[in-house]
Input
Amino acid sequence: MQRLSESVFTGLCHKVGTPSHVIIRRDVVDITETFTNEILAKSACSMIVSGSHREGFRLEGSDVDIMPFPNNAYVVWDIDQAQNYELGEIFLLLCDSSESPPGYTLLRINLIRNMTGGLTNLYKKYLFAGFKINNNIYISSSKYKQFFGAFLQRGTEHGPCINTYVGGAEFDMALCVQCSFWPPSASSWIDRCHSWPQPHVVEDIVKNGCHFVAIGHKLGRLKDHEWRISFSQAEQKLVYSMNHSQFLTYGLLKIFLKEIINSGIATHDKLLCSYHMKTAVFWVIQQKAIPHWYPQTLLEGFWVCFKLLLRWVYEGVCPNFFIPENNMFLSNIHGVAQRLPFSRLYELYEKGLACLLSSPTIRPYVIKVFYNPRQYICTDEFNPRQSTFENLETAMFLHLDFMKEIYNSQFVSLPIQSGGIVSLETVEHLIGFPLTQYQAVWLQRVAALCFHRIPFLIFYRLTDTGANKLMYRVDKMSCHMLSLAAKFGCFSDTLYLAMRFFHTSRYMKALSIIELTKTKFAQSYAMFNNILVWLERFCQLARGKFSSVLMHITPVNINLHSCYYYMNELIPEQSVLKRSDNLCIPPLVLLYMLEFLCAIHTDSIRAQRALNDLHDVVHFDLEEYKDISWQILGICQQITGNLQAALFSYQQSLRQTPRCGIQTVTLKRIQDIIMTANQL
Output
């Protein structure tokens, strides 16, 4: 079993992530949350990021959960805890668990405290979700969620969450209220923590209290009004405290659940979920059912967790890790409903570890050992038996993944979307914090985003007053900020400066920037296509600062924010975006579009060459955002008067995966071409 465990361990490192991959992901999500809450500090709410995405997983279907909560409302367990808050500043809610199942509670408004504290207006704001029991006013979880859910973009409710879209990315948003105190019903958990987690982790968890999520128990008498005690922050800290073998065991259980246990089952019939897997891992680690968690004992740990899960299903009892009295199977895997999941799990149990052969993800790593049982398997991230070249290659791809994390995290940090001085001030403030190298580079990227968004925002809001000296100063400052964006960010960020020059009819300056950017693109593609050249250049530049170097030599997509227009030619496409969305364009597509638009004013031959290059890129080189790329090709062809080619490009845009949501604009452009053709 040891050799088999090692093989599955290395396979999971490829699928789930190595220790370095997981550290990078967590660092980026942590700094994103910190940055966002620094900006939201003076507003009405804060938020925490939770779910498997926060824990460090990037498996298909890994959810990004956001838990927003009001800054001016706190929950207390007894009235004595109210003394910790200043009168007139905080709206207090008091727990009443007398009518609720374990793990759930009602939240009562403390009328005397809130009215005497000068919070009458705030009290009225919360009264929209109020209901009465015996002359006491409580906050209803369903009313609370219904009210705030109406403000979310394209929000659809499922369970405690509202599925919504922000900045073009999908999120599950669980509305909650914060509590600074550890629940009395979870005090037994503190007493159980003898060996895991470490005392400082326990102290940190207890110090940060808990949250209350707007969802009631399905079998509760007041299920529409109850709130569930959420330990999301505590769970995240527990997952962070796992060693990598424990984390991969958790990942293996998630894969096992998706690809084997729930395979072929309709969504509404899936009774087991990944939260049950996580709970099983927590219990097994704390009870020391496995004396040592190493790569060589990975499958032993997995099998112990699986047997615990099987026992829970047989008994119909899944004890919550923090409040064991809360049976998480009570509402769905209980009584007659136990039979089907138990028979399914017991059938897998009888197969033993051979059941893993049914997993498309794990099967190759199991078969690998059967074919060559004596093959050496290295479980180290950087293999001492590999050459320096191979280990450098591993480091290179690790940091390319880091660039992907940076890019994807932009959609999580909501305040960046509007750009502004506040974001830059926040970056300046956080620079003084103790940061990892990845978090420092993330802040560098945020600074670049601000530098190229602020100038466009200024010009969008600024009207030409005729004061030439003022306009000159503003233009000079804006160009300087756009240059800083390219300096702090990726080399493709120079295209924002080129857009600014094009917009102000400085075509030669724009073409000069474009030519410089094309040279850097050529160097970048040469490096990526020739690994030897890549690594040689990588070693010359890096000197240990891999992440910072990679940001300068890796192109990223260009995001045009919906709050202001960058180019007249793309106004229709930007107009259909929701306020928090971006129009995302591959950098080479925008480069050749800009070159074409500038060159038609200065050099017709160069304009045609740029159009040909754009045609080749759209036809052969793109893997994503093909809808907007075909659209841009059609716009350029329409400008030249080639209506037939433009019509074909627009039709191709409609056939692509709708990543940018521009179908209505594409149809309008097709109609315009048909009308123009009929008039000729």
In short: The first strand starts at residue 45 and ends at 50. The chain has three domains: 2-371, 409-556, 559-680.
